[in-house]
Write a structure and sequence with these properties.
The structure holds two protein chains of two kinds.
Chain A (H helix, E strand, L loop, with lengths): L1 E4 H15 L3 E5 L15 H5 L4 E3 L4 H13 L3 E5 L10 H8 L2 H4 L9 E5 L15 H5 L5 E3 L4 H13 L4 E5 L7 E4 L13 E4 L4 E5 L4 H13 L4 E5 L2 E3 L3 H11 L2 E4 L8 H12 L9 E3 L10 H7 L3 H11 L4
Parallel strand pairs in A: 2-3, 2-4, 4-5, 5-7, 6-7, 10-11, 10-13, 13-14
Antiparallel strand pairs in A: 1-8, 6-12, 9-11
Helix pairs in contact in A: 1-7, 3-4, 8-12
Chain B lengths: L9 H4 L3 H26 L14 H8 L7 E4 L4 H6 L4 H8 L23 E4 L6 H15 L5 E6 L6 H13 L3 E7 L2 E2 L2 E2 L20 E5 L3 H16 L5 E6 L19 H8 L3 H11 L5 H24 L19
Parallel strand pairs in B: 1-2, 1-3, 3-4, 4-8, 7-8
Antiparallel strand pairs in B: 5-6
Helix pairs in contact in B: 2-3, 2-10, 2-11, 3-8, 5-11, 6-7
The chains are: A alpha/beta, B alpha/beta.
């Protein structure tokens, strides 16, 4: 066990998987000589050389498609998006090729690729650099969508994603890279995709969150505990496939739910959870499910406006009060 | 334009009689197959979009004759010809068009998504230009593994105007990928003439921007196509990098089954003029001049091909529909691996 940052946990996962499997390589903008725009790939060029740590021109569509092609013939590319805002330029390759080739070919050809990088907002980056797109990818059959919130999950889930035979969209967070935590140094430890993690057990209300809303959800749970409300915090970790069992088991026990996510509300991840919960656990509910999410506007630059737009702990606390009919 | 003068080449062509016969037969097969596919479409046996290859046969046959079985092939949605020339059986292609379980994509792909992993036929792709980076990806994998495989990527001239073309060719040139990019220039992107879509209509000259040779080839002459492809393949195998081939050809039919061969965007006269250099006639005449073919020989080819296509249609008609449970398979990899 070692204490390390989320960034270094990702780095360790990449290093271990590249050591383990010659077919794994990393490709993207500034991943090699610059050592990574966010230093996730620090030191990998030195260890593995330019054949396996590949700098690309700024051409997301081009290099993502090249990665998809390489995966179709058996390599296991890890494609780094400097941020997922730029992955919009590659979305044709992700949606029309990576996600569909297995199906269109009648199962003959798979696409074992990981497309990873930071998503969502950081601080004052403005409307075009502050977008949480997980619901876009989770909408697509054929893709898996993974979003770790802690260093331990970052390492174990990235290793599992690289070993997975499907295209995996692996969304990190700029605001998470410096987060520290205990991480296993066992190179064989992987965290299976599709398994949520109960980050805090509780009995009175279920807060469902993922990625950057996990920390505010835990902070909210702490505040609520002081008021005598015992919140269970479920970190989805994988958006698709969704761990419906963990969610429903919790809901049937607590009878009250708040779903927190970083992105917009319309057709968001939370909307999918509300659909699941009302359909499968309608009789267990003591209150309508509430959602906490980004204000339904492009992200403003001004820091006060930005703060007002973002999901945060006070908003989660307020939503919990509402579903508990308190305050 | 790399064209050939049959009469002067008699001696050098002579050893190729078997090859020429094979190419002629494959071009005739594609032609008859596509005519039958058109009929089946009209009868409602084939659904969706269906883009026929009639007129362009020499491009698929000439280029693929230059490749090895372990090389990689990828194309767009007008790919029946390449699938057949790559050796996918007419039965498997026709059954796929019919959406049957015995089709080369098990009925899940259709006309635009023919796949055959064993023959390294990496698909028909339906978004214009989307397959261009995939083709470079196969070449990247060959280079990564240190094999001497090459990839060939087909797309129409209209796809040369899309961003994927620029991004991919730049990277392929930069990294010297063993890739061959084939622009099948049939003059029209759907109903838009090249001159109405490209600022510079000599598309092969774009190769200069990407540090690779660009060659313009007569796509109605299968021998010229094969020869030009040989050079591109040799270059790629030798590690010298990619080549952009602009192969000039014609489609004698509409863009898809829903439009006429001529009318709003091109005249009957223009279409008729293009038919004067029918690739099948060009090779047929050349072979006759060289004494490789006579009426009986040609009749034998036509008869063999007719039987093959009739058999393919019968096979497709009689094949089972996919099991309803197939709806849910092949979305994700099987769990245990």
């Amino acid at each position: 066990m070692a204490n390390m940052t989320y960034r270094d946990a990702l780095n360790a996962a990449l290093r271990e998987e590249m050591q383990r499997d010659e077919n794994v390589f990393l490709m993207g903008e500034e991943v090699a000589e610059y050592d990574g725009a966010y230093k996730v790939s620090r030191g990998l060029l030195k260890e593995f050389g330019a054949r396996r740590v590949v700098d690309t021109p700024i051409a997301e569509l081009g290099f993502t498609g090249i990665g998809v092609g390489a995966a179709m013939v058996g390599l296991r590319p890890v494609i780094e998006m400097m941020t997922f805002n730029f992955a919009l330029l590659a979305i044709d390759q992700i949606v029309n090729a990576a996600a569909k080739v297995r199906y269109m070919s009648g199962g003959q050809i798979g696409v074992p690729i990981v497309i990873r990088g930071p998503g969502g907002a950081a601080l004052q980056l403005g409307a075009q650099h502050s977008q949480a797109f997980e619901s876009w990818y989770a909408h697509i059959p054929g893709l898996k969508v993974v979003m770790p919130a802690t260093p331990a999950d970052a390492k174990g889930l990235l290793k599992a994603s690289i070993r997975d035979d499907n295209p995996v969209i692996f969304i990190e967070g700029e605001m998470l890279y410096n987060l520290k935590g205990d991480v296993s140094d066992d190179p064989d430890l992987v965290i299976p995709l599709g398994k949520a993690d109960i980050k805090r057990p509780g009995n009175d209300v279920t807060i469902i969150c993922h990625s950057k809303t996990v920390a505010p959800a835990l902070a909210a749970a702490k505040t609520l505990a002081e008021e005598g409300i015992d919140a269970e915090v479920i970190d989805l970790r994988t958006i698709r496939p969704l761990d419906t069992d963990t969610v429903l088991t919790s809901v049937r026990r607590t009878n009250r739910v708040v779903v927190a996510e970083e992105g917009w509300s319309f057709a968001g991840v939370g909307a999918q959870l509300v659909d699941l919960i009302q359909r499968e656990a309608f009789d267990a509910l003591d209150a309508p499910v509430l959602r906490v999410h980004q204000a339904d506007v492009p992200m403003p630059y001004n820091k006060h406006l930005e703060k007002a737009a973002k999901a945060d702990a006070p908003k989660i606390v307020a939503a919990v009060h509402h579903v508990c009919y308190k305050g | 334009m790399a064209s050939s003068q049959a009469s002067k080449k008699g001696r050098s062509d002579a050893p190729f009689a078997d090859q020429y016969r094979e190419w002629l037969q494959m071009m005739v097969l594609i032609r008859h197959f596509e005519e039958k596919a058109g009929e089946a479409y009209s009868l409602g046996q084939i659904g969706g979009f269906c883009h026929l290859y009639i007129g362009q046969e020499a491009v698929a046959v000439g280029t693929l004759a230059a490749l090895r079985p372990d090389d990689y092939v990828v194309s767009a949605y007008r790919e029946h010809g390449q699938a057949l020339a790559r050796g996918i059986t007419p039965r498997a292609v026709m059954a796929e068009l019919f959406g049957k379980a015995t089709g080369c994509s098990h009925g899940k792909g259709g006309s635009m998504h023919l796949f055959d992993a064993e023959r390294h036929f990496m698909g028909g792709h339906g978004i214009v230009g989307g397959q261009i980076p995939l083709g470079a990806g196969f070449a990247f994998a060959a280079q990564y593994r240190g094999t001497d495989q090459v990839s060939i990527t087909y797309f129409g001239e209209a796809a040369a105007n899309i961003g994927a073309f620029h991004e991919t060719l730049n990277i392929a040139g930069l990294w010297k990928l063993p890739a061959i990019f084939v622009i099948e220039n049939n003059g029209y992107g759907m109903g838009t003439a090249v001159k109405r879509a490209a600022a510079i209509t000599e598309l092969s000259t774009r190769a200069a921007s990407y540090g690779m040779p660009g060659v313009k080839v007569d796509g109605q002459d299968v021998v010229a196509v094969k020869k030009a492809t040989d050079a591109a393949v040799a270059r790629a195998r030798a590690g010298e990098g990619p080549t952009l081939m602009e192969i000039i050809t014609f489609r004698y039919v509409g863009h898809s089954m829903s439009d006429a061969a001529s009318g709003t965007y091109r005249s009957k006269e223009e279409l008729e003029a293009s038919r004067q250099r029918d690739p099948i006639v060009v090779l047929d005449s050349r072979m006759r001049e060289l004494g490789m073919l006579d009426d009986a020989g040609r009749k034998a080819i036509d008869a063999a091909v007719d039987a093959q296509v009739a058999d393919a249609v019968k096979f497709a008609e009689e094949s089972p529909e996919p099991d309803p449970a197939e709806l849910w398979t092949d979305v994700y990899a099987p769990e245990a691996h």
